[in-house]
From TrEMBL:
<feature type="region of interest" description="Disordered">
    <location>
        <begin position="1"/>
        <end position="32"/>
    </location>
</feature>
<protein>
    <submittedName>
        <fullName>NAD(P)-dependent oxidoreductase</fullName>
    </submittedName>
</protein>
<dbReference type="Pfam" id="PF13561">
    <property type="entry name" value="adh_short_C2"/>
</dbReference>
<keyword id="KW-0560">Oxidoreductase</keyword>
<dbReference type="InterPro" id="IPR002347">
    <property type="entry name" value="SDR_fam"/>
</dbReference>
<dbReference type="InterPro" id="IPR020904">
    <property type="entry name" value="Sc_DH/Rdtase_CS"/>
</dbReference>
<dbReference type="GO" id="GO:0016614">
    <property type="term" value="F:oxidoreductase activity, acting on CH-OH group of donors"/>
</dbReference>
<dbReference type="InterPro" id="IPR036291">
    <property type="entry name" value="NAD(P)-bd_dom_sf"/>
</dbReference>
<feature type="compositionally biased region" description="Basic and acidic residues">
    <location>
        <begin position="1"/>
        <end position="28"/>
    </location>
</feature>
<comment type="similarity">
    <text>Belongs to the short-chain dehydrogenases/reductases (SDR) family.</text>
</comment>
Length: 283
């Protein structure tokens, strides 16, 4: 377990899913069909929100899961329980992905527990709302990039020697990369970097049979926004600006990750899926 002083940052984000009302919907909507039978997945930000829904769905489809999380021990243990309830193995790893050393530790502990890595889901992220660019401090700017994009580099660097033919990397970008967000300048910028990283990493690894794709969710009801990632006055109407007129649920996003992780997407790499409530996105 990492020491507290090793943590790059420790604040209220991303927040406890157990404190939300209403609770996000993480439960898979259909029976499993063995699409990830005996695979091993690392899911960063796996304790809550989209990460929890992905862990639950992967487990239902036959995968063992390493659940990487920052602070919320209770949420992480609940996600572990969910995976084990599906009949699969799970471990929880408390780590800040913004630390190269901690990402190395995540991979080591996953290999110690499961012996291999087939799927890496880079889902961990943070956001801090600021309406004026001059309000974004240097500390916040560095911290957001450290978590959101440096963490993906570090996780891939740590996992790369252990990823073989047929492995899959899936990164979480955002609709804000495509349409922008005036109140999330630093966050949206990291999501643009993630999309470019996804496309470039795909080119880098495709010759070795490793597929790299991404998912760009729209507004999804997770702890990220109500626990400080968005102004309080916007939470009441969160997601209403989408064509569907509502926020999405984590279990409406997780199937995109599953599709990209399994053999159904064997001819896809460098691509982005868009579960975003009907927002039409260009390339």
């Amino acid at each position: 377990m990492p020491e507290t002083q090793d943590m790059i940052h420790e604040d209220s984000l991303p927040g406890h899913e157990s404190a939300l009302d209403p609770k996000p919907e993480w439960r898979p909507r259909y029976p499993g069909s063995g699409r990830l039978k005996d695979k091993v997945a690392i899911v960063t930000g796996g304790d809550s929100g989209i990460g929890r829904a992905v862990a639950a769905l992967f487990a239902r489809e036959g995968a063992d899961v390493a659940i990487v999380y920052l602070l919320e021990d209770d949420d992480a243990q609940e996600t572990r329980r969910i995976v084990e309830e599906e009949g699969r193995r799970a471990i929880t790893i408390k780590a800040d992905v913004g630390s190269r050393k901690m990402c190395d530790r995540v991979v080591e502990q996953t290999l110690d527990a499961f012996g291999k890595i087939d799927i890496l889901v880079n889902n961990a992220g943070e956001q801090h709302p600021d309406e004026d660019i001059t309000d974004i401090t240097e500390e916040q700017l560095r911290r957001t990039f450290q978590t959101n994009i440096f963490g993906m580099f570090f996780m891939v660097q740590a996992a790369r020697p252990h990823l073989g033919q047929g492995a899959s990397i899936i990164n979480c970008t955002s609709v804000t990369m495509y349409k922008g967000s005036g109140g999330l300048l630093d966050y949206s910028s990291t999501k643009g970097a993630i999309t470019a990283f996804t496309r470039s990493l795909s080119e880098n690894l495709i010759g070795d049979g490793i597929r790299v794709n991404a998912v760009a969710p729209g507004p999804i009801w997770t702890p990220l926004n109500p626990c400080g990632g968005a102004p309080k006055e916007k939470i009441e109407h969160f997601g209403e600006g989408t064509p569907m007129g509502r926020a999405g649920q984590p279990n409406e996003v997780a199937p995109s990750f599953l599709f990209l992780a399994c053999e159904d997407a064997s001819y896809m790499s460098g691509q982005v899926l868009h579960p975003n409530g009907g927002v039409v996105i260009g390339s």
